[in-house]
Amino acid sequence: MQADLKKHLPLAVALLLSLLVAVPARAQETPVELPVIKLTAGINVIRAEIAANDRDREKGLMFRTKLGSNQGMAFLFDDPGKVCMWMKNTLIPLSVAFMDESGHIMNVEDMAPQTETNHCSAGTARYALEMNLGWFTAHGVRPGMVVSGLPSHR
């Protein structure tokens, strides 16, 4: 029996190594720790990661498989303007609220996973907040309301 094991061990090791190499690099990435802040929208408290630079905004919530019930990602843009989001490589369905410089919500859009459809702000936005799909509706958060606790501009 030991002779058979020794005979097949190199093949087993080669097979195992080929499986490890075949795993997509993205699945092996260690998540980047982003700063987390507490936001409020009405009576709702949100734990939001902050994406405040190009690299973090571009990655957003890509490749995540879940998001906590009151967790999200707040995007801080350098300059206010028309802002659009998409869902390339984003695995979970999300809703996004676009906000002006004072945190007033202009519009909320629902976004399907792994799509490249643009979802844009209705006006000049400084912030966007992504939450699980339907979170804003389920919590009574709608356009005209203010999201408090957003970081100030640089």
What does it look like?
This protein is α+β, with helices and mostly antiparallel strands and 154 residues long. The chain has a single domain (28-148), classed as Jelly Rolls (Sandwich). Helix content is 23%, strand content 34%. It contains four helices and nine strands, in the order H-H-E-E-H-E-E-E-E-E-E-H-E. The protein has helices at residues 2-22, 25-28, 54-59, 135-138; strands at 36-41, 44-51, 71-81, 84-85, 94-99, 105-111, 119-120, 125-132, 147-148. Helix 3 (54-59) links the parallel strand 2 and strand 3 (71-81). The N and C termini lie far apart (69 Å).
- Unreliable runs: 12-30
Tell me the name of the CATH homologous superfamily: Protein of unknown function DUF192
The helix-and-strand class reads alpha+beta
Overall 3D shape: globular
The span between the termini is: 69 Å
The number of E-state strands comes to: 9
CATH topology: Jelly Rolls
Number of helices: 4
Query: What is the CA-based Rg, rounded?
Result: 21 Å
Helix content: 10-25%
Strand content: 25-35%
| CATH secondary-structure class | Mainly Beta
CATH architectural grouping:
Sandwich
The spatial strand order of the largest sheet comes to 6-5-8-3-2-1-9
Mean pLDDT: 86
Largest sheet: 7 strands, mixed
Total domain count: 1
